[in-house]
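My main concern about presentation is that the manuscript never shows what a single data entry looks like. For the editor and my fellow referees, an illustration may be useful. For illustration, here is how one protein appears when written out as sequence plus structure tokens:

***
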Amino acid sequence: MASHNPKSETSLGEDPDCFLTNPDKSLVPKFQFFFSKSISRSELKRVLSSNPHALEYDLDNRIVPGFNFFKDLTQCSDYNVFLAYKNCSSILTLNLESILARNIAVLREKGVPESILVNKLIVHPRIFAVNPEKFRRTAEEVEKLGFDPLKQYFLIALQAFIQISKSTWERKFNVFKQWGWSDEDIISAFGKYPRCMIFSEHKISAIMDFFVNEMSLKSSYIADHPVVLSYSLERRIIPRCSVLKALLSRGLIKKYSVCSLLLYTEKQFLQRFVTPFQDPYFLKLYEEKQALSH
């Protein structure tokens, strides 16, 4: 059982730099363990600052076995184990065998590819830290909706159902409905690109407003191409669409796809929409709009 040390917890929360520099003697072995895994001081500070309770657990009975269990379970590197800790520090104090391992077993039973599973576990470990019965039920519901466990969207849909509360789902449904989407449109968009329900209501509204009111697109276009909601409005959508509008106003292009425009890499975008027209105005416009995002 962990011994509670409120002094350690308070010190870490108030001054993590000082705490790591002059730690309590009982904590030195714990820091040494993480440093032995090539974890930097700044990275360790970030994780322990967000979950100081981790230091209350015994090194030999909990911290080391937990670290090794996670590594064996995922067959990943020491650094990736710690990366998972950075992305969700609560797994440091989670009973991995009774919760994490059972949830991973559910996905392996369904045939989720190991590479996709391990990547999601490292980047978004929080979705695995839920009650195993709830996790299994949710995974089955996602599968019934038609998501293929062999594809990465299965885990993204699972993440959405686990992370988003019922009230938040309802609010996001209402945001889309305000732009004329039907229930069927929303469900269809979620099926095509489940991340669309993970984005904040503010992001969804701002992007919908720009496309409908600034670009004169029908909201149904976004429902058909929900991936466009994934891009940054300031850094990608506005700069590229500003160039597009300038080209259209000068009659330099007629056919275009906003979805393709946003999907292109930076190099591809410049090659297709800036360089061919040999006018410095377009590059200047693009760079000015990008600068506004900084």
